[in-house]
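If it is no trouble, might I ask you for a protein's amino acid sequence along with its backbone structure tokens?
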Amino acid sequence: MAAEIAEETEYKEEPAPGWIAQELTTEETQELTTEETTPNKFDSDKRQYKGYTHSDIIYNFFYSKDRRHYCKGARVFFEDDRLYSFGHHFILAIRTKHNAFIINADKYSVSTSCHQSIAIAISPKGTPQIPFSALGAANVQIDNIEIIDKSDDTWEMRTTRDPKTGKKKTYLVHHLGACLFREGGRYFLSAIDLECRRPQYFLVELVNPALSVYEAFRQISGLNNEDWEAYTRGEILRQGEYFFKPVGTTNELKQQLKTKKLEIKKRVDLNELFFREPTGGLSSLFTQRRNPHIATECINYNGAVYARGTVRHTEHKMLRLGKLWHKVALNFVVNSWTAAGAVD
């Protein structure tokens, strides 16, 4: 979500939300550095702030050992290991049993977004932001989460033109970093897919344990080492949870499959091919995928799926496969979830 804010980019005590674009002048854009695009951290030298501003209360939640005093403000307050925005209906952040903090990345209102922004700026370095709605859908006990690894948040620079003045404006958009965590005996990866039309959040449960975010991404791809290298070079394409490996023309595919005839179907939803039970009916996982991935032409041969032409999806950019057939593979996960509210 991008929105204009004041032209002044100097840090203030209650900064604009990190996911809200910050407008920059041409001179500021030229001098932009990573340090300047990262929200400043609150001064953490003090053990407790004896005040009732939003920043005071949020700071005390993260750093103060005193959980009884200076914990309630007008709109932000905390009780034990939970920080709230306006009321108990929205948990802003949680401290887990493993003494790690997690900030709720779900969006609720403009005011709550401002509280989230302050929490992001003040929280200890490396504090992950995960939509609690996705964790709830995955039946994850939030207070039992153990953080394993986290990648840094990213800032994307974009340019737009003011419809009234015609002048170009440069702004920054914040994207959540990926987070690998464990809850009980289950492993999860929380991340943003930046290849969508608009960056989309996803949460996946891993089939096997992982020790790093990079290892988790490799695992969910389901690709072997050779294919992973081809994917990083752009030779294997991806749209959402599907990977497309080029195999050749129709005649070349017939030779590989050792057959003289292939049935080509038009406008096929890939979900219908990959989410079927042995009995032929659609699995329960199919109903969770609301939007189809429609391939222009498709071949389903002995359980292997091939596509060419284009693949269209409402949330993803149209994928152009061209005249060559591509073998289609589904990612390697137990299950996946999105967030109920907008994220980044």
User: Anything to note?
Assistant: Residues 22-133+155-175 form one domain. The CA atoms of residues 134 and 339 lie 5 Å apart.
